[in-house]
Structure formats: C-alpha cells, structure tokens
Amino acid sequence: SEADRGVVPQLLHRLFDVVEGDTRPEPASELRITMSFLEIYNEELNDLLDPRPRQKKLFVHQHPQMGVYVPHLTEAASTSAADAMRLLDFGAKIRATAQ
C-alpha cells in the first residue's frame, strides 16, 4: 500500500501524478525531470549514477543564481516514477558501506 512506501517513493509517485494530470489549457510546453544521486562518504563526494572512477574529484559549489550545485554530477532523465525508482535502486547498490 502507499502508506508502506518510504518518503522518496511516495514523493516520486506524487510528482509524476501531478505532471501527468496537468489539465491547464496551456500546459508547460516542455517539462523535463532529471535526477542525481550523490553520496558523501569519508568527506568525498561520489556520483552514484556513474560509478566509473573519476579523473577529478567532485566538489560542492555555491552560485549566486543557481544556489548549491555539484559540477559534473550525472543528471539522468526520468520519465516515470518506476524509471526514477530504477535509478535510485541502481545508485543504492553502489553506495559505500562501512566494513
């Protein structure tokens, strides 16, 4: 049931329900939903949607208009809640775990 799902799955399903239910006379001409999945482990940032080793480390930056962002962090397009959950599952499988 929906009550058994966690906060993130509920949020994703609601987000895509709202997008699909846009009944305005002139809905947004284009709506793009992208996802990133970032892990901070031992003070290092890891892109969980791209597990390949990186030449350069990822860093958090502050931009006056964009706010906080991480350059070169993977942004994967998502077209449905199920698609978004697959991306989260992929990232969760490569997270670092303490030994």
Shape, principal axes of CA atoms: globular
Strand tally:
6
Q: Could you spell the SSE succession in H and E letters?
A: HEEEEEEH
Mean pLDDT: 87
Label the structural class: alpha+beta
Largest sheet: 2 strands, antiparallel
Low-confidence stretches: none
Strand order of the biggest β-sheet: 1-6
Strand content: 15-25%
What helical percentage do the residues reach? Answer: 25-40%
Terminal CA distance reads 34 Å
Radius of gyration, in angstroms, nearest whole number: 16 Å
- Total DSSP helices: 2
Could you please describe the fold and organization of this structure?
There is one protein chain. The chain is built from 2 helices and 6 strands, in the order H-E-E-E-E-E-E-H. A hairpin with a 2-residue loop joins strand 2 (about 40) and strand 3. It has helices at about 5-20, 80-95; strands at about 35, 40, 45, 60-65, 65-70, 75. The strands form 3 sheets. It has a two-stranded antiparallel ribbon with strand order 1-6. Strands 2-3 form a two-stranded antiparallel sheet. Strands 4-5 form a two-stranded antiparallel ribbon. It is about 25% helix and about 20% strand. By secondary structure, the chain is an alpha+beta fold.
